[in-house]
């Protein structure tokens, strides 16, 4: 079961003092972290606080399905947001908030709220995003969000970018040879995407007949494993890795970090290592 842990903030410090300050902060803060709430959800898959008091968490409640909970007292108590129109089998993946805007990622696409979690609506233009983050310090007032994941209908692996609080997303291919996972977006121009995979032994079973043909066959990598109606893993490999890096595709551990400094127009791999570990 998930618990909520709170701790002290971090000051904006110069790089020259960063290592010393981090070492001192680790010692000073070790005794101040505390559990302020327990058993919030059966599974907690994401959390985002817009200030020391107001925050959200996304997860699953056993026997009820997906849940988004909101706190206005620093995590001491949480109350459910209205998600009654969602299916009980919708798996949430991450959540982020800025201002009155809240964006949630799921295996069914992104969902957004423009009223502080009172109501949620389906986004347009994204897909199966593993993570969601606001852009810059506060998403430009809660307007700019960026998701990271795979978007097979558009043959894109990388970033889904929104400038209207999650209502619509535009896709950017991050030039990856493995599965996109998480992103960081310190500014409008500079973005980072981490990607990775791990080996599968034994190989996953083929897709059930009910979804056969839903995705192209490809002996590449994996993403989230979702069980089909027959109880078998509905494995859907990604078959649209970029052709210019296809030769480097691997079937074991892989870790890649891709960066853009022009808002997604061009990308460069700044780190790549195979066979030892993966980014997750």
Task: Identify the notable features of this structure and list them briefly.
globular, single chain, 18 strands, 4-stranded antiparallel beta sheet, 280 residues
What's the gist of this structure?
With 280 residues, the protein is mainly beta. Helices cover 6% and strands 35% of the residues. It has two helices and 18 strands.
Q: Find the count of extended strands (DSSP E, 2+ residues).
A: 18
Question: How do the SSEs run, as a string of H and E?
Answer: EHEEEEEEEEEEHEEEEEEE
- Arrangement of strands in the largest sheet: 3-4-5-6
Distance between the termini: 21 Å
Report on the biggest sheet.
4 strands, antiparallel
Q: What average pLDDT do the residues reach?
A: 79
Structural class: mainly beta
What does this structure look like?
- With 280 residues, the protein is mainly beta.
- 6% of the residues lie in helices and 35% in strands.
- The chain is built from two helices and 18 strands.
- It has helices at residues 18-30, 139-142; strands at residues 4-6, 34-37, 43-49, 55-61, 65-71, 79-80, 92-98, 101-106, 111-113, 121-122, 128-134, 145-151, 156-162, 170-173, 180-184, 191-197, 254-260, 268-274.
- The strands form five sheets. Strands 3-4-5-6 form a four-stranded antiparallel sheet, with no helix packed on it. It has a four-stranded antiparallel sheet with strand order 7-8-9-10.
Secondary-structure topology with pairs:
Blueprint: E1 4-6, H1 18-30, E2 34-37, E3 43-49, E4 55-61, E5 65-71, E6 79-80, E7 92-98, E8 101-106, E9 111-113, E10 121-122, E11 128-134, H2 139-142, E12 145-151, E13 156-162, E14 170-173, E15 180-184, E16 191-197, E17 254-260, E18 268-274
Antiparallel strand pairs: 1-2, 3-4, 4-5, 5-6, 7-8, 8-9, 9-10, 11-12, 12-13, 13-14, 15-16, 16-17, 17-18
